[in-house]
Amino acid sequence: MALKFEIVTPEKLVRSDEAYMVVVPGAEGDFGVLEGHAPLMSTLRDGTISVYASDGATPETLTIEGGFAEVSETGLTILAEAIG
């Protein structure tokens, strides 16, 4: 199974996909989210989101400017102020 995730800005849904793991730039440090992660909410700092399609894969990266991340039973939602 895979982690379901969405990246949203105030203008639009940027991406809705599945991945093995997503690493997010939290306000207090980067954190990785795998399927089944405990529920969590975090503010985000400007930085890079790394999306891993599979274990050991080279990540795809996206630059974001601030926002929030929510991990729930349904997956990861990233509410970014902007995507660079």
Write up what this structure looks like.
- The protein has 84 residues and is an all-beta fold.
- It has strands at 3-8, 13-19, 21-26, 29-34, 40-44, 47-52, 60-72, 75-83.
- Strands 1, 2, 3, 4, 5, 6, 7 and 8 form an 8-stranded mixed beta sheet that branches.
- The N and C termini lie far apart (29 Å).
- The mean pLDDT is 96.
Secondary structure topology:
Layout: E1 3-8, E2 13-19, E3 21-26, E4 29-34, E5 40-44, E6 47-52, E7 60-72, E8 75-83
Characteristics of this structure?
84 residues, ATP Synthase, domain 1, 8-stranded mixed beta sheet, 8 strands
N-to-C series of helices and strands: EEEEEEEE
Radius of gyration: 11 Å
The structural domain count equals 1
CATH superfamily: F0F1 ATP synthase delta/epsilon subunit, N-terminal
N→C terminal distance: 29 Å
How many helices? Answer: 0
Helix/strand-derived category reads mainly beta
CATH class: Mainly Beta
Task: Specify the helix fraction band.
Answer: under 10%
Strand segment count: 8
Q: How confident is the prediction overall: mean pLDDT? A: 96
Bin the strand percentage. Answer: over 45%
Oligomeric state: single chain
Can you summarize this structure?
With about 80 residues, the protein is mainly β. Helix content is about 0%, strand content about 70%.
